[in-house]
């Protein structure tokens, strides 16, 4: 399988490669120029030395003679400690100096220094020769002055410059690489910003992406937006369809159920009545399941983009209890509220919290015996403890963990209508708020205690 | 003891014969055996035994196991031994900077960086091959008989004027090096000639006054001390100073116009075989300044940059290819001709 | 009690009307909003049952019009939507309560009673027998100087007897009236509740008599 390519990596590698090439070029150019300059300097001094020697040539009684100037050689010692050799030939006969000093590049023009590089006495030497004519006789003599110097000083200079240039080049490379890394990151920042903006969205957030996008990304964003628009309309259609379907199914169900109730009232035979009762129960069960599935879907959906609205938990509990009181009343169940005086401020998603509370209470009412109490409590300490305690049959020996998994139902509730999603919904709401659901036995007797533990945000 | 001494003499005699055979002239040779010998360091040197012996002993104390074979020769012979005859030595010590420079320049020296290189002034090392360990001024020595304390001339011009004013008093009583015979004398003379025109005038005057020519500083100092000479020009200051410790009758004058300062140098010949010990000796010599006892015993003033800074008249001779100039055959013969013309005047 | 049912599905409407009439309520039915408005012009209702989706408009608009016109007749919305958010928005719009299709009539009745009780209306929704007064909305039972509040099931049981004093009701009939379909009720439960009611009625002009083999009836003490 091919590795997915990273634009950032590619951009970085390319920039780094460019930086490497530039650094290398820099090193080579600086080294070249510097060593050329150093060589030029040596050549200049050698030429000056040779010229000074040539200038002190004279003729004495028909013989060419030389008064070697002190400075001619001492000047060669000013910039380095290289070895110095010289040779003066008159008509190819050595007049003075190192007779074995090779002169391969003999100058042919007067006063134009000729340079060459040779190996002499085990070292590389740079030679400069100057041709002079000394009029010691009718024909005059051809005098060649050659001055040579070893190049270890030059090599040292070149080496030093190379080291410096390499250091600078390396530094440049590192700097350029760092900068290219930053540049690559910065160039791709709009992309990651967009990615972040899209990632942070909940699954229902299908608004068009409006983040500032560079021109290069505009087509992509355009395509993404148009895709999301299509998805949005498709989802809207689906949602409408589900709502419509719910409506369409629920209305005939209501009709059937009502008719069943009427029929049930009119029938006398117990077996007929039982049949109708079973039918009504089936309808109720499917209706309740549908309601819980929709609630669960809603909770999952909202958890992705949790709203953090300031709300009053006490009011929310009161409202939900009021709402469920008539249902509880049918079984002579009292909903007792032990709430603190005054509001209990909390930041969260009211609709989700209400769904959680509704489902826990609904469960509690379903599983409570008639003529019992259900207590709703808020305790405020380091976190908010919202507990619902009933006097029902409790959780028995059930594993608390598995009770909150989807569709699990207590082992001892076979006769109660329910889909088992109630606790799962509450658990997910608690988690979405950074809290947790705690299941325990009623400490004051038989029954279950379900606690939503919500940290302050 | 006696047997050992006899053996030494015998070896010396034998080596003198061997020296003669090899072409360069050996003045003296001494072998300083180590108690338990593990290696031999062969030194060829221009320094007298009296001067160098304390250093050898101290070296052996610091490096037991090294025997030192110490051969004394003149500066020119030392050059000849190494340059022409490829004589086998591990160390060459000479007061002739120019010749030592030529040895290094022409590839007869081995490179080494002394362990105490950082503490040495830049001008004390050349090419990592030539190491200066003393700085010795060329001084004038005057006789007490002719000059009361402090009455000697302080500059070359004053000296010329004095000599011109009193030709009879000084005739035949002035000494200086015979630069044809002494490498040190030749170096000092050429450096004088480079530094000032007064040199040739002085030579003129001295020639007219029938100057006596010497091969060595020691003889000149002795003649001045005895009153045979009134003054000697360009005497090796270190010898004069150590002589003054034991001899009366003369004064040392450092002229105030300028004083050439010669650097005594050591180099490791390229054909040295006992390089390790040679390097140890180089380290030992370049650290001479840290051993005041040896300075006192040998009378060799160590390299000391601050002493030069304190006296602006002191001009240390710089290493470099410039020193090769007066070794040029043409240049040398011309210089000697001029010198002879000035100083060697046939007495009528 | 007099109900106005606004529901466009005629089959459901028919069934609901019949079901409510079984409990002795009067029900008018309107299948459109304009018909509903017409009904309300000519009659006073104790309670309106309102479906949201109607052919000539949204039930929510009707709700808002009612509230703006300051008509206080309680409205219970019948909705096919079960999402919490939908329910909340209904309450915000001024519905007194809502019930999701399909619904249990026992629950509907309980909600109606709760709504009426909250409103403090229908104070005259009461029945008298032999000087004993039963308020069907609040569950208050009065005779002589004493006044007690019945619990829901006690009320629902006594309501049956007050609707037809002297008539014998079988245990199974009483179970049907007292328990919702999700409850598992036994004939023993009826005996328990009858015993409670007898205690409640002690000292009043009414008593519940066991008619062996047939059931129970309420007669003058």
Describe the structure.
By secondary structure, chain A is α+β, with helices and mostly antiparallel strands. In chain A, 51% of the residues lie in helices and 20% in strands. Among the domains of chain A are: 7-163, Beta-Lactamase (2-Layer Sandwich), CATH 3.30.450; 307-455, Heat Shock Protein 90, CATH 3.30.565.10. Chain A has helices spanning 7-55, 70-74, 152-187, 189-199, 218-266, 270-303, 313-329, 350-367, 400-403, 422-432; strands spanning 57-60, 63-66, 84-90, 93-97, 114-120, 123-134, 141-150, 309-312, 334-338, 345-348, 373-380, 383-389, 436-441, 448-455. In chain A, strands 4-3-7-6-5 form a 5-stranded antiparallel β-sheet. A 5-stranded mixed β-sheet of chain A has the order 9-11-12-14-13. Chain A has a two-stranded antiparallel sheet with strand order 1-2. In chain A, 33% of the residues are buried. Chain B is of the alpha/beta class and 348 residues long. Chain B has 2 domains: 2-135 and 263-314, D-Maltodextrin-Binding Protein, domain 2 (3-Layer(aba) Sandwich); 136-261 and 326-343, Periplasmic binding protein-like II (D-Maltodextrin-Binding Protein, domain 2). Helices cover 43% and strands 20% of the residues of chain B. Chain B has 14 helices and 12 strands. Chain B has helices at 2-22, 49-62, 75-83, 97-105, 156-165, 167-170, 183-195, 198-208, 217-226, 237-244, 275-286, 292-298, 305-310, 329-343, and strands at 26-32, 39-45, 66-73, 91-94, 125-126, 130-143, 174-177, 212-214, 231-236, 250-253, 259-267, 314-316. In chain B, strands 1, 2, 3, 4, 5, 6, 7, 8, 9, 10, 11 and 12 form a 12-stranded mixed β-sheet that branches. In chain B, helix 5 (156-165) runs parallel beside helix 8 (198-208) and helix 8 (198-208) packs across helix 14. In chain B, 47% of the residues are buried. Chain C has 8 helices and 13 strands. In chain C, a hairpin with a 2-residue loop joins strand 8 (126-129) and strand 9. By secondary structure, chain C is an alpha/beta fold. Chain C has 2 domains: 2-119, 3-Layer(aba) Sandwich (Rossmann fold), CATH 3.40.50.2300; 126-220, Arc Repressor Mutant, subunit A (Orthogonal Bundle), CATH 1.10.10.10. In chain C, the strands form 4 sheets. A 5-stranded parallel β-sheet of chain C has the order 2-1-3-6-7, sandwiched between helices. Chain C has a 4-stranded antiparallel β-sheet with strand order 8-9-10-11, covered by helices on one side. Chain C has a two-stranded antiparallel ribbon with strand order 4-5. The interface between A and C is large, with 49 and 40 residues.
């Amino acid at each position: 399988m091919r590795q997915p390519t990273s634009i950032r990596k590619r951009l970085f590698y390319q920039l780094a490669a460019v930086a490497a090439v530039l650094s290398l070029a820099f090193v080579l150019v600086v080294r070249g120029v510097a060593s050329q300059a150093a060589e030029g300097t040596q050549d200049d001094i050698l030429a000056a030395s040779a010229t000074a020697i040539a200038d002190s040539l004279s003729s004495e009684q028909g013989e060419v003679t030389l008064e070697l100037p002190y400075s001619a050689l001492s000047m060669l010692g000013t910039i380095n400690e290289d070895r110095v050799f010289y040779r003066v030939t008159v008509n190819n006969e050595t007049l003075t100096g190192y007779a074995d000093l090779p002169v391969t590049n003999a100058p042919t023009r007067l006063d134009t220094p000729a340079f060459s590089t040779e190996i002499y006495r085990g070292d590389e030497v740079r030679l400069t020769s100057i041709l002079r004519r000394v009029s010691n006789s009718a024909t005059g003599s051809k005098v060649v002055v050659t001055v040579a110097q070893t190049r270890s000083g030059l090599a040292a200079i070149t080496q030093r410059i190379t080291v410096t240039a390499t250091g600078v080049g390396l530094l440049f490379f590192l700097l350029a690489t760092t900068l290219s890394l930053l540049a690559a990151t910065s160039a791709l920042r709009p992309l990651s910003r967009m990615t972040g903006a899209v990632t942070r969205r909940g699954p229902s957030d299908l608004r068009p992406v409006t983040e500032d996008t560079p021109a290069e990304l505009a087509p992509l964003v355009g395509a993404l937006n148009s895709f999301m628009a299509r998805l949005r309309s498709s989802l809207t259609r689906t949602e409408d369809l589900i709502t419509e379907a719910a409506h369409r199914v629920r209305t005939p169900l209501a009709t059937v159920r009502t008719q069943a109730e009427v029929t049930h009232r009119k029938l006398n035979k117990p077996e007929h009545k039982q049949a109708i009762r079973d039918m009504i129960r089936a309808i109720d069960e499917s209706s309740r399941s549908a309601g819980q599935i929709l609630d669960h879907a809603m909770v999952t959906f909202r958890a992705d983009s949790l709203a953090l609205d300031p709300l009053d938990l006490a009011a929310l509990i009161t409202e939900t209890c009021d709402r469920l009181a008539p249902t509880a009343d049918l079984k002579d169940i009292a909903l007792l509220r032990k709430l603190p005086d005054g509001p209990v401020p909390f930041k969260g998603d009211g609709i989700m919290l209400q769904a959680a509370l509704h489902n826990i209470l609904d469960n509690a009412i379903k599983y409570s015996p008639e003529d019992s109490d259900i207590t709703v409590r808020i305790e405020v300490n380091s976190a908010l403890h919202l507990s619902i305690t009933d006097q029902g049959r409790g959780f028995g020996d059930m594993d608390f963990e598995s009770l909150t998994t989807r569709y699990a139902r207590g082992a001892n509730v076979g006769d109660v209508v329910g889909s088992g999603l109630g606790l799962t919904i509450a658990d997910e709401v608690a988690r979405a708020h950074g809290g947790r659901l705690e299941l325990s036995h009623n400490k004051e007797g038989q029954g279950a205690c379900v606690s939503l533990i919500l940290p302050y945000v | 003891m006696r047997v050992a001494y006899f053996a030494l003499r015998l070896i010396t005699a034998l080596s003198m014969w061997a020296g003669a055979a090899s072409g360069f002239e050996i003045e003296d040779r001494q072998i300083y055996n180590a108690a338990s010998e593990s290696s031999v360091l062969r030194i060829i040197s221009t320094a007298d035994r009296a001067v160098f012996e304390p250093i050898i002993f101290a070296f052996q104390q610091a490096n037991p196991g090294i025997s030192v074979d110490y051969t004394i020769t003149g500066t020119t012979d030392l050059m000849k031994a190494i340059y022409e005859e490829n004589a086998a030595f591990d160390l060459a010590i000479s007061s002739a900077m120019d010749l030592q420079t030529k040895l290094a320049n022409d590839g007869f020296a081995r490179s080494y960086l002394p362990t105490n290189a950082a503490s040495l002034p830049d001008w004390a090392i050349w090419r990592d091959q030539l190491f200066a360990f003393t700085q010795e001024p060329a001084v004038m020595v005057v006789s007490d008989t002719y000059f009361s304390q402090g009455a000697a001339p302080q500059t070359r011009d004053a000296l010329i004027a004095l000599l011109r004013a009193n030709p009879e008093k000084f005739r035949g009583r002035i000494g200086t090096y015979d630069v044809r015979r002494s490498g040190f004398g030749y170096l000092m003379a050429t450096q004088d000639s480079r530094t000032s025109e007064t040199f040739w005038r002085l030579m003129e005057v001295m020639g007219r006054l029938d100057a006596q020519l010497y091969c060595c500083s020691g003889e000149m100092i002795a003649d001045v001390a005895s009153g045979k000479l009134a003054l000697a020009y360009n005497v090796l200051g270190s010898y004069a100073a150590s002589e003054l410790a034991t001899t009366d009758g003369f004064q040392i004058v450092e002229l105030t116009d300028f004083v050439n300062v010669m650097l005594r140098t050591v180099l490791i010949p390229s054909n040295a075989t006992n390089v390790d010990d040679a390097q140890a000796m180089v380290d030992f010599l370049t650290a001479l300044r840290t051993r005041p006892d040896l300075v006192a015993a040998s009378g060799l003033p160590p390299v000391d940059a601050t002493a030069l800074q304190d006296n602006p008249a002191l001009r240390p001779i710089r290493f470099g290819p410039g020193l090769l100039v007066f070794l040029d055959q043409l240049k040398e013969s011309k210089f000697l001709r001029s010198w002879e013309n000035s100083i060697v005047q046939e007495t009528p | 009690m007099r109900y106005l049912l606004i529901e466009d599905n005629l089959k459901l409407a028919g069934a609901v009307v019949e079901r409510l009439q079984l409990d002795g309520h009067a029900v008018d039915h309107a299948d459109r909003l304009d018909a509903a408005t017409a009904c309300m012009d000519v009659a006073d209702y104790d309670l309106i049952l309102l479906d949201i989706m109607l052919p000539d408009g949204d039930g929510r608009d009707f709700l808002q019009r009612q509230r703006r016109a300051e008509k206080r007749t309680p409205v219970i919305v019948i909705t096919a939507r079960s999402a919490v958010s939908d329910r909340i928005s209904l309450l915000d719009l001024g519905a007194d309560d809502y019930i999701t299709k399909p619904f249990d009539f026992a629950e509907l009745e309980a909600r109606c009673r709760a709504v009426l009780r909250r409103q403090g209306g229908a104070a005259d929704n009461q029945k008298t027998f032999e000087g004993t007064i039963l308020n069907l909305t609040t569950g208050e039972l009065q005779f002589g100087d004493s006044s007690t509040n019945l619990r829901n099931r006690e009320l629902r049981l006594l309501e049956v007897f007050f609707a037809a004093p002297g008539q014998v009701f079988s245990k199974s009939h009483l179970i049907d009236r007292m328990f919702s379909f999700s409850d598992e009720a036994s004939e023993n439960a009826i005996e328990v509740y009858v015993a409670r009611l007898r205690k409640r009625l002690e000292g009043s002009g009414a008593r519940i008599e066991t008619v062996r083999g047939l059931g129970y009836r309420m007669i003058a003490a």
